[in-house]
Specification:
By secondary structure, this protein is α/β, with parallel strands linked by helices. It has 9 helices and 9 strands.
Length: 236
């Protein structure tokens, strides 16, 4: 998103959301958006599959700005015809709450009506990524392989990543499972671009990327603003 000021909020005090109750996630989303409204933001990306599933409709009902959600990119089944031949099989990985949500079940019904994909929920995978991403332990890949065990032997050639934690370890997932992982990052960016332009903004997608973010963390229950340079160490 070239030259667009960005604020990143990490709900470190409560993430990941995959095993939380829907009402709790909705309340956290409301609190965070309330804070962002004080910053006069023009658009909010709900950069969490689970929060999108259980809270984005609630947010749209209670706030007047546009919201962009992040959902498993099931539409790839329609965008990539080769995934429907006899040589390819697609699997979908989500958190438990995402996999059980009414929004995701409707997404499946609409985009995968013939149930062509295999669907897996992972209770602990997001937490593992949360714990290991910054300082991976020597046995991280072994832990990851154990978590991904249900996918072993599935015959999947492609894996749709249904949690924003999962792309952080995409390379390791691909190595362990020997498949191609698919994230929704580009479609989400395109949707943000569409909304930004519809609001009368003239934004080009091929300019220099934003390097510096305002970063808020809720760690220890307080809002703390930290500096964040995209090309150096992320704040902890």
């Amino acid at each position: 998103m070239p030259s667009v000021p960005l604020i990143y909020v990490a709900d470190d005090a409560n993430a990941p959301y995959g095993e939380k109750q829907p009402a709790f996630v909705q309340e956290r989303a409301r609190i965070i958006v309330d804070q962002l409204m004080g910053e006069k933001v023009a658009m909010v990306v709900v950069a969490c599959n689970t929060a999108t599933a259980v809270a984005i409709d609630f947010l749209r009902q209670n706030f007047s700005i546009p919201f962009v959600g992040v959902e498993p990119y099931l539409n790839v089944l329609n965008k990539w015809p080769e995934l429907n031949d006899d040589h390819h099989k697609t699997a979908v990985a989500t958190t438990v709450l995402m996999g059980q949500s009414a929004r995701f079940l409707e997404l499946r019904r609409r985009l995968d009506p013939k149930n062509r994909s295999l669907y897996f929920t992972f209770p602990n995978l997001a937490t593992l990524v949360e714990q290991e991403f910054y300082n991976p332990s020597p046995d991280f890949e072994a832990k990851l392989e154990l978590e991904l065990a249900p996918l072993k032997g599935s015959g999947a050639t492609h894996l749709i990543l249904g949690c924003t934690h999962y792309p952080l370890v995409q390379n390791a997932i691909e190595k362990i499972l020997k498949l191609k992982a698919i994230s929704p990052c580009r479609p989400v960016a395109n949707r943000c671009h569409e909304i930004y332009q519809s609001c009368g903004k003239n934004m080009k997608m091929d300019g220099e990327a934003t390097k510096t973010f305002r970063f808020f963390s809720t760690k220890q229950g307080v809002w703390k603003e930290l500096s964040f340079d995209l090309f150096h160490q992320w704040p902890k």
